[in-house]
Task: structure prediction
Amino acid sequence: MTEPEEDDAKLRTGIQSIEVGFQLLKALAASPRAMMLRDLAAAADMNPAKAHRYLVSFQRLGMVAQDPVSGRYDLGPFALQLGLAGLNRLDPVKKARPILSQLRDDIDQTVGIAVWGNHGPTVVHWEESSHPVTVSLRLGDVMPMLNSATGRLFGAYLPRQQTLPLIERELKERRDDNLPDLPRSLADYDAVCADVRAHGAARTLGGVLPGINAISFPVFDASGHVSMALIVLGAQTVFDAEWGGAIDRQVREIAHRISTELGYLGGTPPTGTAGHA
Result:
């Protein structure tokens, strides 16, 4: 092996002591509260004496802080700065795009991303399947609040004061629309939103586009707020829209994965029960 190859091999092996000590930081990050040394060492699969040596160094660096009264360890000020710096550099849509491309290939259904814009739920990314659906949606289009899966999703998870003007306007402007699934009052819409939250996603069966099923899943940020919606849609003849079905399970897992990468620490939203509306 030549000298450059030896140097490259050393770089690939990394510094084992850093990787070992990092287990303590992972354990603290996963814990809802400060930890005693014995518990922290056990969580990191390390003996307490060894853990203590790492913690002394981490304290000097500001990665760990120790309460002088209880003796418990918690994440330190620099660990918090590091986490905030990482969150501030996250672009949710940029992070989701390559994942959505792979998802489209895996399930062979049209997928997209919508965010909340000045005029409501706005489509910002689109990936067509090998059997693209005939739709008039374009990037920048705003989805209706009352009968689109994406509009209902944002209606269910955003603060009501943020969505109420759009909901009330649609209720007024569309009161004569002859659609069986269209909410006719704010109470009707509240019931729809409660159903969305119960399932952890919104679903329409031919609601906006005849013959097209759609499901929209929330992606949450580090504060627990919905940052965007993952949309999947397809022709009713080839799209399994059942709660708990293959599409629901796979896209729901992707939405939770992206949420976790954005710093969301909550649990997975409720999974729908097959056969229920």
About this structure: The radius of gyration is 24 Å. The chain is about 45% helix and 15% strand. The chain has two domains: 16-82, 92-262. Residues 92-107 form the longest helix (16 residues).
